[in-house]
Specification:
- The protein is mainly alpha-helical and 273 residues long.
- Helices cover 57% and strands 5% of the residues.
- The chain is built from nine helices and four strands.
- The strands form two sheets. Strands 1-2 form a two-stranded antiparallel sheet. Strands 3-4 form a two-stranded antiparallel sheet.
- Strand 3 and strand 4 form a beta hairpin.
- The longest helix is centred in the N-terminal third of the chain and has 27 residues.
- The chain starts with 12 loop residues before the first strand and ends in an 11-residue tail after the last helix.
- It is a multi-pass membrane protein.
- Pathway: Protein modification; lipoprotein biosynthesis (diacylglyceryl transfer).
- Belongs to the Lgt family.
- It is found in: Cell membrane.
Length: 273
């Protein structure tokens, strides 16, 4: 007989100030931005002036706007498009929740384009510098999903299965949020941080991020419950998350090949510039 692990059932509201409730998920966003800022400052100090504290602060600010705007717009377009067509106002109903990583990624790339133009930097030099810090926010976000008891996995009989209180069927499920925390957060951070410790050719760090995030997301989607309003797109297993992640794997692998083939290095290497 399998013994399940009890879901900790943490209150998703961390604290309240009068009528205002602060959710753990929102706090996790702050943790992600703060972690990226601290890591960016650490690397900037070793950049021989190529990156300054003001640049790091601005990059995090631009990135935060890209994450929030792109994440919300992407969620509506990728996961709620029919509902959006019926009622475009759902785009601004942010209190109802709903963010998309892939939309956030596109938002950040757009934001970094404007940042790069402002500081006269190559766009990929910017993304190579920032890519190792992104998993901090990804991991924190998945912890927020877990605390909120959302985006759970498929039913299973593994010994670490959990019953989530918001699940109407009350089935033992994979804690897929924790799988994503481990892979997209901890493992991806370690890969990118140590890969970028020494100078790498332009495109390679960004390529590694896209490649491994895409692989990890595709793998976890096999044990994660698909979005109820979309379900499976094909073959009884292809999900929207997998469909959106496959181009990341291909583009990431292509960037790595191009980077090592061209051997063009930023001024001070990825670890310091």
């Amino acid at each position: 007989m399998n013994i399940m692990i009890s879901y900790p059932n943490i209150d998703p509201i961390a604290f309240s100030i009068g009528p205002i409730s602060v959710h753990w998920y929102g706090i996790m966003y702050l943790v992600g931005f703060a972690g990226a800022y601290l890591c960016g400052m650490y690397r900037a100090k070793r950049s021989n002036g190529v990156w300054t504290p003001d640049m790091v602060s601005d990059a995090i600010f631009y990135g935060a706007l890209g994450v929030i705007l792109g994440g919300r717009i992407g969620y509506i377009l990728f996961y709620q498009f029919p509902a959006f067509v019926d009622n475009p106002l759902i785009l601004v109903r942010i209190w109802e929740g709903g963010m998309s990583f892939h939309g956030g990624l596109l938002g950040v790339i757009a934001a970094m384009f404007f940042f790069a133009r402002r500081y006269n930097k190559h766009l990929v030099d910017v993304t190579d510098f920032l890519a190792p810090f992104v998993p901090i926010g990804l991991g924190a976000g998945r912890l927020g999903n877990f605390i909120g008891g959302e985006l759970w996995g498929k039913p299973t009989d593994v010994s670490w299965a959990m019953i989530f209180p918001n699940d109407p069927l009350q089935l033992a499920r994979h804690p897929s949020q924790l799988y994503q925390f481990a892979l997209e957060g901890v493992v991806l951070f370690c890969i990118l941080w140590f890969f970028s410790q020494r100078p790498k050719p332009r495109y390679c760090v960004s390529g590694m991020f896209l490649l491994f995030y895409g692989i990890f997301r595709i793998l976890v989607e096999f044990v994660r419950e698909p979005d109820i309003q979309i379900g499976y797109l094909a073959f009884g297993w292809l999900t929207q998350g997998q469909l959106l992640s496959l181009p990341m794997v291909l583009i990431g692998a292509g960037l790595i090949v191009v980077g090592f083939k061209r051997q063009v290095f930023p001024k001070s290497g990825n670890a310091t510039s």
